[in-house]
C-alpha cells in the first residue's frame, strides 16, 4: 500500500534531500484528466500532480497533491502543503543509498 505523507514548506526539501541532487530532467505537471479545485473566497487551490526524473538508478516518478494558499491578489503563493507517495519515495531513497554505499566500497 502506498501512503502519502504531508509536507509543508521546507519539510519536503529535507525529506527528499538524499535524492534531490541525483534528479535530472525533473518535470512536474498537473495530472491528466484532473481539474484543480479552486476556492476563490478562501484563496485556496488543490491539485493533483505527477513528476518524472532520470536518476543513476533509473526513472523516478511520483504522484502529489498540492494545497496552495494564494495572496490577496491571487498571483503569489503564500503557503503550500504537499503530499506525495511516501512509501515509493522511501524505497527509492533506500535504492539510491545502496548504490552510493556500493560505490564507496
UniProtKB/TrEMBL annotation:
UniProt protein name: SnoaL-like domain-containing protein
Amino acid at each position: 500500500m502506498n501512503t502519502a505523507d504531508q509536507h509543508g514548506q521546507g519539510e519536503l526539501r529535507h525529506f527528499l534531500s538524499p535524492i534531490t541532487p541525483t534528479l535530472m530532467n525533473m518535470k512536474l505537471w498537473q495530472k491528466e484528466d484532473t481539474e484543480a479545485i479552486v476556492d476563490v473566497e478562501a484563496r485556496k487551490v488543490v491539485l493533483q500532480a505527477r513528476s518524472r526524473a532520470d536518476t543513476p538508478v533509473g526513472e523516478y516518478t511520483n504522484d502529489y497533491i498540492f494545497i496552495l494558499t494564494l495572496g490577496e491578489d491571487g498571483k503569489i503563493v503564500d503557503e503550500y502543503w504537499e503530499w506525495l507517495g511516501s512509501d515509493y519515495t522511501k524505497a527509492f531513497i533506500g535504492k539510491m543509498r545502496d548504490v552510493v554505499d556500493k560505490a564507496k566500497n
